[in-house]
Design goal:
Rossmann fold, 43% helix, single chain, 10 strands, five-stranded parallel β-sheet, alpha/beta
């Protein structure tokens, strides 16, 4: 079970902010207040923080440095933001924050019961893995599939397919954020699978990274010429793979 800890940040600790913080604490969430200053946010931040509630004062957009700090931290942790403010201010904030980071928005006056319910529901989804990015690994080597799944399952929702056709069938009913596709497969090769994916409206926009066991220049150039999102050598170590995926999702957090 995830640690239920969140930061509630605002320009000042107003009465309504104190009320919401207290109600979250009463609901079993370790909720703390931090002012919208980088130093205060940084000193309040703990490694397990996944959720931040940002209270918007009327007609006052948060300072750019504080907002960038929050966005960077949430992208780094795969966390989310809850916005609370006037309707017009919420609309403006949605142009300053990646939409993928915004879990919920609450127009003032806030329904306290609804606010608490949504936060509690967030942690339930977090525990179930519903909020994790999803990755489909396609490879005809069952041992390699099992190994990569073991490496990724703590950080991502992982699906497996042992052939291109099995992958196409799975994608007909399951949405994924990224495909790791073996370049050299029998029957239907990786490039053929990629061509099929890009020919269908439902799958053409799914990003694909090739997995290849060949590192010579000619083989790598053949892979790159297909214009995937990237390629990974099958000899990659666990830590490097996790780093590559983390960087990819941070750069493509749409």
């Amino acid at each position: 079970m995830s640690i239920r800890r969140m930061i509630f940040t605002a320009e000042k600790e107003s009465f309504i902010v104190r009320v919401l913080v207290k109600k979250m604490q009463d609901a079993g969430v370790d909720c703390i207040y931090a002012s919208l200053r980088v130093d205060d946010l940084n000193s309040s931040w703990m490694g397990e923080d996944q959720l931040i509630a940002l209270f918007l004062e009327d007609d006052l957009i948060p300072r750019e440095d504080a907002l960038h700090f929050i966005i960077d931290k949430l992208e780094e942790r795969g966390g989310h933001l809850i916005l609370v403010g006037a309707r017009e201010d919420l609309k403006i904030m949605c142009t300053h924050v990646p939409t993928d980071l915004i879990y919920k928005s609450f127009a003032r006056p806030v329904d306290n019961a609804m606010f608490i319910s949504e936060v509690v529901e967030y942690y339930k989804k977090l525990d179930s893995g519903e909020l994790k990015k999803s990755i489909l690994i396609v490879d005809d080597d069952s041992q390699y599939l099992t190994l990569i799944r073991q490496w990724l399952v703590d950080s991502y929702k992982v699906y497996l397919a042992s052939s291109g056709l099995q992958a196409i069938k799975l994608l007909g009913k399951t949405k994924v954020d990224l495909i790791l596709l073996d370049h050299e497969m029998p029957v239907t090769s990786g490039p053929q699978v990629l061509e099929m994916l890009r020919s269908e409206e439902e799958t053409k926009s799914i990003p694909v990274m090739f997995l290849t066991g060949k590192s010579d220049k000619e083989s790598v150039m053949a892979v790159v010429s297909l214009h995937p999102e990237g390629y990974l050598l099958k000899s990659i170590k666990k830590e490097k793979l996790l780093e590559e995926l983390k960087n990819y999702f941070a750069l493509h957090n749409e």
